[in-house]
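hey
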């Protein structure tokens, strides 16, 4: 039997994501902003970042954050395949998140004891994820996939599964998601909007992070 689900290298990161609860989802196009952004997240009280591979400099930004702000739990998002998984891990990512069930990437992470949270929206996808060895998954896009009602429905047949929820999460509905017993965290772009980040306005980022942290009960 695989020890992935009980390996401290995996569980410590997933437990930390659950403690932080609201994970800023970051799209950044300027490596020079990586470190001040990371410091703003930590100062605001949400010391985590899912840096999406939607810009060419994503790996460099992860590397700078990991090296210079070690108190930040930095991971990679929008990871679609094994090469991107490897690139993210080499840069210093501590966890991998994907929008869908990229089975080759999930298998790679399980084989190497890397925390991975694959995206899905149906019970069939969830059953495939369980066969791959993961019990922490992402409901995406959460609002369009049924929201908290879908989480409740899937909680019956899959009591062992915990969900990260992203896609349509905002301050007005984040508390309802976090109150669901099978949700371990939510992710949102509202905490560090791309336009605010690209403008280098880290005072606003820190303010938004502080406001978001008050939603955590």
């Amino acid at each position: 039997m695989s020890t992935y689900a009980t390996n401290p290298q995996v569980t410590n990161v997933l437990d930390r994501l659950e403690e932080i609860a609201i994970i800023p989802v970051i799209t950044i196009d300027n490596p020079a902003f990586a470190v001040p952004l990371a410091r703003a997240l930590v100062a605001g009280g949400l010391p985590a970042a899912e840096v999406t591979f939607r810009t060419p400099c994503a790996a460099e930004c992860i590397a700078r954050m990991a090296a210079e702000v070690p108190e930040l739990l930095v991971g990679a998002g929008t990871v679609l395949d094994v090469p991107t998984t490897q690139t993210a891990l080499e840069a210093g990512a501590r966890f991998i998140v994907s929008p869908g069930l990229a089975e080759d990437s999930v298998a790679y992470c399980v084989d190497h004891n890397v925390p991975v949270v694959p995206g899905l929206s149906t019970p069939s996808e969830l059953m495939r994820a369980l066969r791959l060895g993961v019990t922490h998954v992402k409901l995406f896009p959460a609002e369009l996939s049924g929201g908290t009602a879908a989480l409740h429905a899937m909680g019956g047949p899959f009591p062992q599964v915990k969900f990260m929820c992203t896609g349509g999460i905002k301050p007005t509905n984040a508390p309802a998601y976090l109150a669901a017993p099978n949700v371990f965290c939510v992710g949102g772009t509202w905490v560090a909007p791309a336009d605010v980040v690209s403008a280098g306005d880290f005072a606003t980022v820190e303010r938004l992070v502080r406001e978001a942290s008050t939603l955590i009960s």
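The chain has a mean pLDDT of 97. The longest strand covers residues 183-188.
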